Amino acid sequence: MTQMVREVGAENTRFVDDTLLVSESERALRGARCPECATTTFPVQVGCPRCGAQGMETAALPTRGALWSFTVQNFQPKNPYRPDGDFEPYGVGYVDLGEVIVETRLVENRPDRLAIGQAVQLQFVRAFVDEDGTEVLTFAFGEENR
Amino acid sequence: MKVAIVGIGIHKFGRTPGVSGRAQGAAAARSALADAGVEWRDMQFAFGGSYAAGDADSLVSDLGLTGLQFINVANGCATGGSALISSCSAIASGRYDLGIAIGFDKHESGAFNMDPSTLGIGPWYGETGLMLTTQFFAMKIQRYMHLHGITEKTLAAVAAKAYANGAMNPNAWRHEGHDAAAVAAARMISHPLTQYMFCSPGEGAVALVLCRADKARQYTSTPVYIAGAELRSRRFGSFEVFNPWLSPESAPGPTVEAARATFEAAGIGPSDLDVAQIQDTESGAEIMHMAETGLCVDGEQEKLILTGATAIGGEMPINTDGGCLANGEPIGASGLRQVYENVLQLRGDAGPRQVPGKPKTGFTHVYGAPGISACTVVSR
Asked: Which of B130, B140, B144, B280 could form a disulfide with B323 if both were Cys (CB 3.0 to 4.6 A apart)?
Protein backbone atom coordinates (compact mmCIF):
# COMPACT_ATOMS: atom_id res chain seq x y z
CA MET A 1 0.00 0.00 0.00
CA THR A 2 0.98 3.61 -0.17
CA GLN A 3 1.65 5.80 2.83
CA MET A 4 -0.67 8.80 3.30
CA VAL A 5 0.78 11.90 1.70
CA ARG A 6 0.92 14.95 4.01
CA GLU A 7 1.30 18.71 3.66
CA VAL A 8 4.35 20.46 5.09
CA GLY A 9 3.37 23.37 7.31
CA ALA A 10 0.00 21.93 8.41
CA GLU A 11 -1.04 22.48 12.02
CA ASN A 12 0.58 20.24 14.66
CA THR A 13 3.30 19.14 12.30
CA ARG A 14 6.98 19.86 11.94
CA PHE A 15 9.50 18.82 9.29
CA VAL A 16 12.10 16.35 10.55
CA ASP A 17 15.00 18.72 9.76
CA ASP A 18 14.38 22.18 8.30
CA THR A 19 17.85 22.33 6.76
CA LEU A 20 16.75 19.65 4.26
CA LEU A 21 14.14 21.91 2.62
CA VAL A 22 14.62 25.18 0.75
CA SER A 23 11.81 26.70 2.84
CA GLU A 24 8.32 25.92 4.03
CA SER A 25 6.92 27.85 1.11
CA GLU A 26 9.34 26.48 -1.51
CA ARG A 27 8.93 22.76 -0.99
CA ALA A 28 12.04 21.47 -2.69
CA LEU A 29 14.97 19.60 -1.19
CA ARG A 30 17.87 21.89 -0.37
CA GLY A 31 21.12 20.80 -1.96
CA ALA A 32 24.45 22.51 -2.49
CA ARG A 33 26.06 23.14 -5.86
CA CYS A 34 29.77 23.64 -6.40
CA PRO A 35 30.55 26.95 -8.13
CA GLU A 36 33.64 25.37 -9.74
CA CYS A 37 32.55 21.96 -11.03
CA ALA A 38 28.73 22.02 -10.61
CA THR A 39 28.75 18.90 -8.41
CA THR A 40 25.50 18.83 -6.43
CA THR A 41 25.20 17.33 -2.95
CA PHE A 42 22.31 16.55 -0.62
CA PRO A 43 22.11 17.69 2.13
CA VAL A 44 24.12 20.92 1.83
CA GLN A 45 27.82 20.89 2.61
CA VAL A 46 30.51 23.56 2.59
CA GLY A 47 33.31 21.88 0.65
CA CYS A 48 32.97 20.11 -2.69
CA PRO A 49 33.65 16.35 -2.35
CA ARG A 50 34.72 16.17 -5.99
CA CYS A 51 37.09 19.12 -6.52
CA GLY A 52 37.64 20.38 -2.96
CA ALA A 53 36.42 23.92 -3.71
CA GLN A 54 34.91 25.79 -0.77
CA GLY A 55 31.75 27.91 -0.80
CA MET A 56 29.14 25.51 -2.19
CA GLU A 57 25.96 27.42 -3.07
CA THR A 58 22.49 26.44 -1.93
CA ALA A 59 20.39 24.92 -4.69
CA ALA A 60 16.72 23.93 -4.89
CA LEU A 61 16.76 20.37 -6.19
CA PRO A 62 14.34 19.24 -8.91
CA THR A 63 11.15 17.78 -7.45
CA ARG A 64 10.64 15.18 -10.20
CA GLY A 65 12.88 12.32 -11.14
CA ALA A 66 13.19 8.62 -11.93
CA LEU A 67 13.51 5.76 -9.47
CA TRP A 68 17.18 4.63 -9.61
CA SER A 69 16.91 1.69 -7.20
CA PHE A 70 14.66 0.62 -4.35
CA THR A 71 13.97 -1.80 -1.52
CA VAL A 72 11.32 -2.29 1.13
CA GLN A 73 12.28 -2.24 4.80
CA ASN A 74 10.40 -5.19 6.30
CA PHE A 75 11.53 -5.15 9.93
CA GLN A 76 11.47 -2.38 12.51
CA PRO A 77 14.96 -0.88 12.76
CA LYS A 78 16.60 -0.39 16.13
CA ASN A 79 17.39 2.97 17.72
CA PRO A 80 18.07 5.67 16.37
CA TYR A 81 15.00 4.84 14.20
CA ARG A 82 11.89 6.44 15.71
CA PRO A 83 8.93 4.03 15.40
CA ASP A 84 5.47 5.29 14.46
CA GLY A 85 3.03 2.98 16.24
CA ASP A 86 2.72 -0.58 14.91
CA PHE A 87 5.45 -1.17 12.38
CA GLU A 88 4.48 -1.01 8.72
CA PRO A 89 7.07 -1.88 6.09
CA TYR A 90 8.25 1.21 4.21
CA GLY A 91 9.85 1.77 0.84
CA VAL A 92 13.35 3.21 0.45
CA GLY A 93 15.00 4.20 -2.79
CA TYR A 94 17.38 6.40 -4.67
CA VAL A 95 15.80 8.88 -7.07
CA ASP A 96 17.73 10.30 -10.02
CA LEU A 97 17.02 14.02 -10.14
CA GLY A 98 19.46 14.68 -12.99
CA GLU A 99 22.22 16.60 -11.24
CA VAL A 100 22.12 14.39 -8.15
CA ILE A 101 20.70 11.03 -7.05
CA VAL A 102 18.99 11.33 -3.65
CA GLU A 103 18.27 8.60 -1.09
CA THR A 104 14.69 8.82 0.13
CA ARG A 105 11.71 7.16 1.73
CA LEU A 106 9.16 6.02 -0.86
CA VAL A 107 5.40 6.54 -0.59
CA GLU A 108 4.85 3.02 -1.98
CA ASN A 109 5.83 -0.08 0.03
CA ARG A 110 4.80 -2.89 -2.37
CA PRO A 111 7.84 -4.09 -4.33
CA ASP A 112 5.68 -5.23 -7.26
CA ARG A 113 4.49 -1.63 -7.69
CA LEU A 114 8.04 -0.28 -7.80
CA ALA A 115 10.32 -0.38 -10.83
CA ILE A 116 13.64 1.16 -11.74
CA GLY A 117 13.02 4.06 -14.11
CA GLN A 118 9.55 4.85 -12.73
CA ALA A 119 8.66 8.57 -12.77
CA VAL A 120 8.31 9.91 -9.22
CA GLN A 121 7.86 13.26 -7.57
CA LEU A 122 8.64 14.81 -4.19
CA GLN A 123 5.96 14.32 -1.55
CA PHE A 124 5.84 14.22 2.25
CA VAL A 125 4.82 11.50 4.70
CA ARG A 126 4.64 11.12 8.48
CA ALA A 127 7.78 9.54 9.91
CA PHE A 128 6.88 9.50 13.62
CA VAL A 129 5.08 11.53 16.29
CA ASP A 130 6.83 13.60 18.97
CA GLU A 131 5.91 13.05 22.63
CA ASP A 132 3.80 16.23 22.61
CA GLY A 133 1.70 14.90 19.73
CA THR A 134 3.41 16.87 16.96
CA GLU A 135 3.49 14.86 13.74
CA VAL A 136 6.98 14.77 12.27
CA LEU A 137 7.06 14.73 8.47
CA THR A 138 9.82 13.64 6.16
CA PHE A 139 10.33 13.65 2.40
CA ALA A 140 9.27 10.67 0.31
CA PHE A 141 9.04 10.20 -3.44
CA GLY A 142 5.95 8.70 -4.99
CA GLU A 143 4.26 8.29 -8.34
CA GLU A 144 3.27 11.54 -9.99
CA ASN A 145 -0.21 12.85 -9.28
CA ARG A 146 -2.42 12.50 -12.35
CA MET B 1 61.10 -8.40 2.52
CA LYS B 2 58.43 -11.02 1.87
CA VAL B 3 56.06 -12.08 4.65
CA ALA B 4 54.93 -15.59 5.62
CA ILE B 5 52.04 -16.88 7.72
CA VAL B 6 53.46 -19.51 10.05
CA GLY B 7 50.72 -19.95 12.63
CA ILE B 8 46.92 -19.78 12.52
CA GLY B 9 44.35 -19.90 15.30
CA ILE B 10 40.59 -19.55 15.47
CA HIS B 11 37.87 -19.42 18.09
CA LYS B 12 34.61 -20.90 16.82
CA PHE B 13 32.27 -18.38 15.18
CA GLY B 14 28.62 -17.98 16.10
CA ARG B 15 27.38 -17.59 19.64
CA THR B 16 29.42 -18.60 22.68
CA PRO B 17 27.43 -17.48 25.73
CA GLY B 18 29.47 -16.65 28.79
CA VAL B 19 32.75 -16.20 26.86
CA SER B 20 33.72 -12.58 26.22
CA GLY B 21 34.99 -11.39 22.87
CA ARG B 22 38.35 -10.69 24.49
CA ALA B 23 38.55 -14.25 25.82
CA GLN B 24 37.79 -15.55 22.32
CA GLY B 25 40.57 -13.32 20.96
CA ALA B 26 43.04 -14.62 23.54
CA ALA B 27 42.07 -18.21 22.72
CA ALA B 28 42.65 -17.64 19.00
CA ALA B 29 46.02 -16.01 19.75
CA ARG B 30 47.14 -18.94 21.92
CA SER B 31 46.13 -21.40 19.27
CA ALA B 32 48.02 -19.48 16.54
CA LEU B 33 51.13 -19.30 18.75
CA ALA B 34 50.96 -23.05 19.41
CA ASP B 35 50.51 -23.72 15.70
CA ALA B 36 53.76 -21.82 15.00
CA GLY B 37 55.51 -23.35 18.00
CA VAL B 38 56.26 -19.96 19.54
CA GLU B 39 55.37 -18.12 22.76
CA TRP B 40 53.62 -14.81 23.31
CA ARG B 41 56.90 -13.37 24.62
CA ASP B 42 58.44 -14.02 21.18
CA MET B 43 56.01 -11.60 19.54
CA GLN B 44 57.73 -8.33 18.62
CA PHE B 45 54.52 -6.60 17.57
CA ALA B 46 50.77 -7.08 17.38
CA PHE B 47 48.03 -5.40 15.39
CA GLY B 48 44.55 -6.15 16.62
CA GLY B 49 40.99 -4.99 16.24
CA SER B 50 37.51 -5.37 17.64
CA TYR B 51 34.46 -3.21 16.95
CA ALA B 52 32.27 -4.05 19.94
CA ALA B 53 34.26 -6.24 22.33
CA GLY B 54 36.85 -3.91 23.81
CA ASP B 55 40.31 -2.66 22.89
CA ALA B 56 42.43 -5.37 21.32
CA ASP B 57 45.57 -4.26 23.15
CA SER B 58 43.92 -5.10 26.48
CA LEU B 59 44.59 -8.75 25.56
CA VAL B 60 48.10 -8.30 26.95
CA SER B 61 46.69 -8.65 30.44
CA ASP B 62 45.64 -12.21 29.48
CA LEU B 63 48.50 -13.13 27.19
CA GLY B 64 51.38 -11.46 29.01
CA LEU B 65 52.67 -7.96 29.72
CA THR B 66 55.76 -8.31 27.58
CA GLY B 67 56.09 -4.69 26.48
CA LEU B 68 55.56 -5.43 22.79
CA GLN B 69 54.34 -2.82 20.31
CA PHE B 70 50.57 -3.45 20.23
CA ILE B 71 48.54 -1.18 17.94
CA ASN B 72 44.74 -1.18 17.84
CA VAL B 73 43.15 -1.13 14.40
CA ALA B 74 39.63 0.16 13.71
CA ASN B 75 38.45 0.07 10.10
CA GLY B 76 34.87 -1.18 10.12
CA CYS B 77 34.33 -4.47 8.32
CA ALA B 78 37.89 -4.22 6.94
CA THR B 79 39.40 -4.22 10.45
CA GLY B 80 40.88 -7.72 10.13
CA GLY B 81 42.29 -7.00 6.69
CA SER B 82 43.76 -3.76 8.00
CA ALA B 83 45.45 -5.54 10.93
CA LEU B 84 47.01 -7.98 8.47
CA ILE B 85 48.19 -5.28 6.06
CA SER B 86 49.70 -3.32 8.95
CA SER B 87 51.50 -6.47 10.11
CA CYS B 88 52.85 -7.08 6.61
CA SER B 89 54.16 -3.52 6.41
CA ALA B 90 55.82 -3.86 9.82
CA ILE B 91 57.75 -6.92 8.64
CA ALA B 92 58.35 -5.70 5.09
CA SER B 93 59.91 -2.51 6.47
CA GLY B 94 62.63 -4.62 8.09
CA ARG B 95 61.86 -3.37 11.59
CA TYR B 96 60.38 -6.63 12.83
CA ASP B 97 60.86 -10.34 12.18
CA LEU B 98 57.90 -11.91 13.98
CA GLY B 99 54.48 -10.71 15.12
CA ILE B 100 50.78 -11.39 15.27
CA ALA B 101 47.53 -10.05 13.81
CA ILE B 102 44.44 -10.61 15.99
CA GLY B 103 40.78 -9.91 15.35
CA PHE B 104 37.80 -10.71 17.56
CA ASP B 105 34.29 -9.51 18.23
CA LYS B 106 31.03 -10.16 20.02
CA HIS B 107 27.95 -8.38 18.69
CA GLU B 108 24.42 -8.44 20.02
CA SER B 109 21.86 -10.10 17.75
CA GLY B 110 20.09 -8.22 14.97
CA ALA B 111 21.23 -5.71 12.35
CA PHE B 112 23.91 -3.20 13.29
CA ASN B 113 22.52 0.08 14.60
CA MET B 114 24.78 3.04 14.05
CA ASP B 115 24.64 6.71 14.97
CA PRO B 116 24.63 8.80 11.77
CA SER B 117 26.66 11.54 13.51
CA THR B 118 29.71 9.24 13.47
CA LEU B 119 29.66 9.72 9.68
CA GLY B 120 28.75 13.40 9.73
CA ILE B 121 25.08 12.83 8.82
CA GLY B 122 22.20 14.51 10.73
CA PRO B 123 19.93 12.64 13.18
CA TRP B 124 17.07 12.69 10.61
CA TYR B 125 18.82 9.96 8.62
CA GLY B 126 18.59 7.47 11.47
CA GLU B 127 15.24 8.68 12.84
CA THR B 128 13.46 8.22 9.50
CA GLY B 129 14.87 4.72 9.03
CA LEU B 130 17.56 5.13 6.37
CA MET B 131 20.61 4.17 8.51
CA LEU B 132 20.65 0.45 7.68
CA THR B 133 23.40 -1.48 5.91
CA THR B 134 20.75 -4.01 4.81
CA GLN B 135 19.00 -1.37 2.69
CA PHE B 136 22.21 -0.42 0.93
CA PHE B 137 22.99 -4.00 -0.03
CA ALA B 138 19.42 -4.56 -1.20
CA MET B 139 19.42 -1.43 -3.36
CA LYS B 140 22.87 -2.14 -4.78
CA ILE B 141 21.93 -5.68 -5.88
CA GLN B 142 18.48 -4.54 -7.08
CA ARG B 143 20.11 -2.14 -9.51
CA TYR B 144 22.83 -4.63 -10.42
CA MET B 145 20.22 -7.31 -11.25
CA HIS B 146 18.37 -4.78 -13.40
CA LEU B 147 21.52 -3.81 -15.31
CA HIS B 148 23.16 -7.22 -15.68
CA GLY B 149 20.33 -9.74 -15.92
CA ILE B 150 20.91 -11.57 -12.63
CA THR B 151 17.77 -13.26 -11.27
CA GLU B 152 16.55 -14.07 -7.76
CA LYS B 153 17.35 -17.74 -8.40
CA THR B 154 21.04 -16.86 -8.22
CA LEU B 155 20.61 -14.96 -4.94
CA ALA B 156 19.18 -18.13 -3.38
CA ALA B 157 21.87 -20.36 -4.92
CA VAL B 158 24.70 -18.27 -3.41
CA ALA B 159 23.25 -18.65 0.09
CA ALA B 160 22.55 -22.38 -0.36
CA LYS B 161 26.20 -22.91 -1.36
CA ALA B 162 27.37 -21.00 1.73
CA TYR B 163 25.24 -23.14 4.05
CA ALA B 164 26.40 -26.35 2.32
CA ASN B 165 30.04 -25.33 2.85
CA GLY B 166 29.36 -24.14 6.40
CA ALA B 167 27.89 -27.54 7.25
CA MET B 168 31.36 -28.99 6.57
CA ASN B 169 33.13 -26.42 8.78
CA PRO B 170 33.22 -27.23 12.51
CA ASN B 171 34.10 -23.60 13.32
CA ALA B 172 31.15 -22.14 11.39
CA TRP B 173 28.02 -20.80 13.05
CA ARG B 174 25.39 -22.25 10.69
CA HIS B 175 25.36 -25.97 10.11
CA GLU B 176 21.71 -26.38 9.05
CA GLY B 177 22.38 -26.48 5.31
CA HIS B 178 19.32 -24.60 3.95
CA ASP B 179 18.70 -25.44 0.28
CA ALA B 180 17.88 -22.83 -2.35
CA ALA B 181 14.12 -23.32 -1.99
CA ALA B 182 14.30 -22.73 1.77
CA VAL B 183 16.47 -19.65 1.25
CA ALA B 184 14.03 -18.20 -1.30
CA ALA B 185 11.03 -18.93 0.94
CA ALA B 186 12.51 -17.38 4.09
CA ARG B 187 11.11 -14.16 5.55
CA MET B 188 11.69 -11.12 3.34
CA ILE B 189 14.06 -8.70 5.10
CA SER B 190 14.84 -6.04 2.53
CA HIS B 191 13.48 -6.78 -0.91
CA PRO B 192 14.83 -8.77 -2.86
CA LEU B 193 16.87 -10.28 0.00
CA THR B 194 15.39 -12.80 2.45
CA GLN B 195 16.55 -13.60 5.97
CA TYR B 196 18.76 -16.50 4.85
CA MET B 197 20.43 -14.31 2.21
CA PHE B 198 21.89 -12.07 4.93
CA CYS B 199 24.68 -12.82 7.35
CA SER B 200 24.21 -11.80 10.97
CA PRO B 201 26.50 -9.94 13.33
CA GLY B 202 28.01 -12.66 15.54
CA GLU B 203 31.03 -13.67 17.59
CA GLY B 204 34.40 -15.21 16.92
CA ALA B 205 38.14 -14.63 16.75
CA VAL B 206 41.11 -15.34 14.49
CA ALA B 207 44.84 -14.79 14.93
CA LEU B 208 47.72 -15.18 12.46
CA VAL B 209 51.41 -15.38 13.37
CA LEU B 210 53.53 -13.73 10.69
CA CYS B 211 57.27 -13.61 10.07
CA ARG B 212 59.96 -12.71 7.53
CA ALA B 213 59.62 -15.18 4.68
CA ASP B 214 63.29 -16.19 4.88
CA LYS B 215 62.77 -17.36 8.48
CA ALA B 216 59.47 -19.16 7.91
CA ARG B 217 60.94 -22.67 7.88
CA GLN B 218 62.15 -22.16 11.46
CA TYR B 219 58.53 -22.27 12.57
CA THR B 220 56.65 -24.49 10.15
CA SER B 221 57.10 -26.95 7.32
CA THR B 222 54.04 -25.50 5.57
CA PRO B 223 54.53 -21.72 5.31
CA VAL B 224 52.04 -19.72 3.28
CA TYR B 225 53.39 -16.52 1.75
CA ILE B 226 51.60 -13.21 1.35
CA ALA B 227 52.08 -12.30 -2.29
CA GLY B 228 49.98 -9.13 -2.13
CA ALA B 229 47.88 -7.23 0.41
CA GLU B 230 46.31 -3.87 -0.45
CA LEU B 231 43.63 -1.60 0.98
CA ARG B 232 41.84 1.20 -0.88
CA SER B 233 39.22 3.76 0.15
CA ARG B 234 36.43 5.14 -2.01
CA ARG B 235 36.70 7.72 -4.72
CA PHE B 236 34.22 10.34 -5.80
CA GLY B 237 31.25 8.77 -7.58
CA SER B 238 31.29 5.27 -6.08
CA PHE B 239 28.08 3.87 -4.56
CA GLU B 240 28.71 3.17 -0.87
CA VAL B 241 26.78 2.34 2.25
CA PHE B 242 25.21 5.29 4.18
CA ASN B 243 25.18 7.76 1.28
CA PRO B 244 22.23 10.21 1.45
CA TRP B 245 23.07 11.11 -2.16
CA LEU B 246 25.04 9.82 -5.12
CA SER B 247 26.69 11.54 -8.02
CA PRO B 248 25.42 10.74 -11.51
CA GLU B 249 29.13 10.63 -12.38
CA SER B 250 29.75 7.04 -11.32
CA ALA B 251 33.09 5.46 -10.42
CA PRO B 252 34.03 1.87 -9.58
CA GLY B 253 34.06 1.03 -5.87
CA PRO B 254 37.20 0.59 -3.74
CA THR B 255 37.06 -3.18 -4.25
CA VAL B 256 37.98 -2.77 -7.92
CA GLU B 257 41.14 -0.81 -7.13
CA ALA B 258 42.14 -2.88 -4.10
CA ALA B 259 41.81 -6.14 -6.05
CA ARG B 260 43.68 -4.82 -9.08
CA ALA B 261 46.54 -3.52 -6.92
CA THR B 262 46.74 -6.83 -5.04
CA PHE B 263 46.94 -8.88 -8.25
CA GLU B 264 49.60 -6.49 -9.60
CA ALA B 265 51.67 -6.86 -6.43
CA ALA B 266 51.35 -10.64 -6.63
CA GLY B 267 52.20 -10.68 -10.33
CA ILE B 268 49.25 -12.92 -11.15
CA GLY B 269 45.71 -12.55 -12.46
CA PRO B 270 42.34 -13.81 -11.24
CA SER B 271 42.53 -16.82 -13.57
CA ASP B 272 45.59 -18.07 -11.66
CA LEU B 273 43.63 -18.47 -8.41
CA ASP B 274 42.69 -21.86 -6.98
CA VAL B 275 40.36 -20.61 -4.22
CA ALA B 276 38.81 -17.27 -3.20
CA GLN B 277 37.07 -15.89 -0.11
CA ILE B 278 35.11 -12.73 -0.92
CA GLN B 279 32.84 -10.60 1.20
CA ASP B 280 29.34 -12.09 1.23
CA THR B 281 27.56 -10.12 3.92
CA GLU B 282 24.55 -11.01 1.80
CA SER B 283 24.02 -13.06 -1.36
CA GLY B 284 24.12 -10.06 -3.65
CA ALA B 285 27.49 -8.94 -2.27
CA GLU B 286 29.15 -12.19 -3.35
CA ILE B 287 27.67 -11.82 -6.85
CA MET B 288 28.75 -8.19 -7.28
CA HIS B 289 32.14 -8.68 -5.62
CA MET B 290 32.91 -11.55 -8.02
CA ALA B 291 32.92 -9.00 -10.84
CA GLU B 292 34.44 -6.13 -8.84
CA THR B 293 37.42 -8.28 -7.86
CA GLY B 294 37.90 -9.38 -11.47
CA LEU B 295 37.01 -13.06 -10.92
CA CYS B 296 34.44 -12.72 -13.73
CA VAL B 297 32.79 -10.05 -15.84
CA ASP B 298 29.46 -8.37 -15.05
CA GLY B 299 26.53 -10.65 -15.80
CA GLU B 300 28.57 -13.86 -15.96
CA GLN B 301 27.79 -14.78 -12.35
CA GLU B 302 24.41 -16.37 -12.93
CA LYS B 303 25.85 -19.06 -15.19
CA LEU B 304 28.93 -19.61 -13.01
CA ILE B 305 26.93 -19.97 -9.80
CA LEU B 306 24.06 -22.06 -11.17
CA THR B 307 26.46 -24.49 -12.88
CA GLY B 308 28.51 -25.01 -9.71
CA ALA B 309 31.69 -23.28 -10.89
CA THR B 310 31.95 -21.48 -7.53
CA ALA B 311 31.29 -24.60 -5.41
CA ILE B 312 34.08 -26.68 -3.86
CA GLY B 313 35.20 -28.82 -6.78
CA GLY B 314 34.24 -26.15 -9.32
CA GLU B 315 36.67 -24.14 -11.43
CA MET B 316 36.67 -21.19 -9.00
CA PRO B 317 35.64 -22.24 -5.49
CA ILE B 318 34.36 -19.22 -3.54
CA ASN B 319 33.79 -18.95 0.22
CA THR B 320 34.75 -22.54 0.94
CA ASP B 321 34.30 -22.12 4.72
CA GLY B 322 30.73 -20.87 4.30
CA GLY B 323 31.70 -17.20 4.17
CA CYS B 324 29.97 -14.54 6.25
CA LEU B 325 26.61 -16.16 5.47
CA ALA B 326 27.44 -19.34 7.41
CA ASN B 327 29.97 -17.85 9.84
CA GLY B 328 28.28 -14.58 10.75
CA GLU B 329 30.22 -11.36 10.90
CA PRO B 330 32.23 -10.56 14.01
CA ILE B 331 33.64 -7.39 12.46
CA GLY B 332 37.14 -7.51 13.93
CA ALA B 333 37.69 -11.16 12.99
CA SER B 334 35.94 -11.50 9.67
CA GLY B 335 38.75 -10.51 7.29
CA LEU B 336 41.25 -12.71 9.13
CA ARG B 337 38.85 -15.68 8.94
CA GLN B 338 39.11 -15.55 5.16
CA VAL B 339 42.91 -15.71 5.27
CA TYR B 340 42.76 -18.49 7.89
CA GLU B 341 40.60 -20.52 5.49
CA ASN B 342 42.99 -19.96 2.58
CA VAL B 343 45.94 -21.10 4.71
CA LEU B 344 44.03 -24.27 5.66
CA GLN B 345 43.23 -24.90 1.99
CA LEU B 346 46.84 -24.32 0.87
CA ARG B 347 48.15 -26.58 3.62
CA GLY B 348 45.67 -29.25 2.55
CA ASP B 349 44.12 -29.25 6.03
CA ALA B 350 40.54 -28.26 5.15
CA GLY B 351 39.09 -31.73 5.76
CA PRO B 352 35.76 -32.50 4.07
CA ARG B 353 35.68 -29.07 2.41
CA GLN B 354 39.21 -29.37 0.98
CA VAL B 355 39.45 -27.95 -2.55
CA PRO B 356 40.77 -30.77 -4.73
CA GLY B 357 43.97 -30.55 -6.78
CA LYS B 358 46.29 -29.19 -4.06
CA PRO B 359 45.51 -25.46 -4.32
CA LYS B 360 48.55 -23.19 -4.46
CA THR B 361 47.08 -19.70 -4.62
CA GLY B 362 44.24 -18.07 -2.66
CA PHE B 363 42.53 -14.68 -2.69
CA THR B 364 40.62 -12.75 -0.01
CA HIS B 365 38.46 -9.64 -0.18
CA VAL B 366 36.63 -7.59 2.45
CA TYR B 367 34.49 -4.50 2.08
CA GLY B 368 33.54 -2.09 4.85
CA ALA B 369 31.63 1.10 5.57
CA PRO B 370 31.89 3.86 4.52
CA GLY B 371 33.71 2.57 1.43
CA ILE B 372 36.94 0.67 2.05
CA SER B 373 38.19 -2.61 0.70
CA ALA B 374 41.16 -4.84 1.51
CA CYS B 375 42.38 -7.81 -0.55
CA THR B 376 45.15 -10.39 -0.25
CA VAL B 377 46.77 -13.03 -2.41
CA VAL B 378 48.52 -15.88 -0.60
CA SER B 379 50.53 -18.69 -2.12
CA ARG B 380 52.64 -21.62 -1.02
From this structure: B280
